[in-house]
Amino acid sequence: MNQSILIPLIVGVVSAILGYLLGRLLSKSKNGNEKVLLKNKIAKLESSLRKCKESRSILETDLKLAKESSVLIPFDASLAKTIFGKKIKENDLKIIEGVGPKIEELFHNSGISTWKELGETSIDKCQEVLKSGGDRYRAHKPNTWPKQAQLAYEGKWQELKEWQDNLDGGKA
């Protein structure tokens, strides 16, 4: 073989081998750096998740304690009787204008059995309870029921009675 061809051929082969080795070396270090970065990011996310779980646990405990320690307003049956002219049972949801025995039963079945609970229930949730009873309850409009229940729970019988005198089946 001619020496003029041999030298460029050797230089080309050596360059190719060096290029290949250099490329492998650089790609390994790049992948290694990416792995380290990803591991660090995962560690930060896991730490953040732990902190969120701890915060949630604390908030759930605080909420539970708040519910347990909430002050219940005592029921004054004689005042209710004086205002309404009839005996009122504590937490009788039928005192709410628009709520009858069947609707009261729907609320009880949904876990809402006190004036306080109904007073803290959204109108949308009241609609869901009514829908659970079927089509015959669609005509009912519970827009005032939570507020009425809140007044009953708070013992604001005169205010409740005056408001109910202006309602039509629980509708304003």
Short description:
This protein is mainly alpha-helical. It has seven helices and no strands. It has a domain of 89 residues.
Structure description:
- The chain is an all-alpha fold.
- 68% of the residues lie in helices and 0% in strands.
- It is built from seven helices and no strands.
- It has helices at 3-69, 77-84, 101-109, 115-119, 123-132, 145-153, 157-165.
- The chain is rod-shaped, with a radius of gyration of 37 Å.
- The protein starts with a helix and ends in a 7-residue tail after the last helix.
- 16% of the residues are buried.
- The model has no long low-confidence stretch (mean pLDDT 86).
Mean pLDDT reading? 86
Q: What's the end-to-end separation, in Å?
A: 108 Å
Based on Cα principal axes, name the global outline.
rod-shaped
Count of alpha/pi helices: 7
Low-confidence stretches: none
SSE arrangement, N to C: HHHHHHH
Alpha-beta classification: mainly alpha
Taking all Cα atoms into account, the compactness measure Rg is 37 Å
Number of strands: 0
